[in-house]
Amino acid sequence: MKKIGLIGGITWQSTQLYYQLLNTKVAEVLGGQSSCSCIIESVNFADISAKQAAGDWDTLHQQMTEIAVRLEKAGADIILVCANTMHLSVPAIKEAINVPLLHIAEVAGAVVKEKGSQKVLLLGTKYTMELDFYKDVLQKQFAIDVIIPNEQDREIVHSIIYTELAKGIITEKSKQQYLEIIKKAEKDGVDAVILGCTEIPLLIQQDDCDVLIIDTTKEHAFAAVKFALD
């Protein structure tokens, strides 16, 4: 089994999902008492969040890169950034490491194409929804039509992530707000929704929606297990 290196804590709520998913999948595939070989370096999200809000991406790129290098030196055979937004740092990380980095948007794009979807709603932090780093992967590598919510709805999605989901707070009100945003997109012809924030699966699952839901946390973790066991 290859060793998976995780850059976690972005937030710890989603990192614990990764750890659970990785170990559950390995046990499912190998059986018995099997579990995942992995290393986690977890950051202080308060520091990350403050730098994001200040637009200090250069410092964040450096920080993510230094962690990835340490994980590689510790024996990681593949690197996962356990957050959609911090894939902004992927170009910098790739220049500094010699092992593969599994890009969460590439995993999501492959699942969308496998399911036969053509037009998706991308939900995530305002950085993921508004900047091009994530949409470009979906559009240019997979020819997927990507839409995002309107400005008011983007603020709702972002605020719930940072003020509630990042702290493990789950409310029915916030769930209904997300579902209303998804229903609006369905009227615009969307046939899938990418949960482009690793905390959103804490709030929204496939059973909540008629449209296809792409849980990027689960798909990212399962793709990492496939790599580790091949």
TrEMBL record:
Domain of life of the source: Bacteria
Signal peptide: none
PANTHER family assigned: ASPARTATE-GLUTAMATE RACEMASE FAMILY (PTHR21198:SF7), GLUTAMATE RACEMASE (PTHR21198)
Pfam families (UniProt xref): Asp_Glu_race
Listed name of the protein: Aspartate racemase
GO molecular function (one): amino-acid racemase activity
UniProt keywords, alphabetically: Isomerase
Family: Belongs to the aspartate/glutamate racemases family.
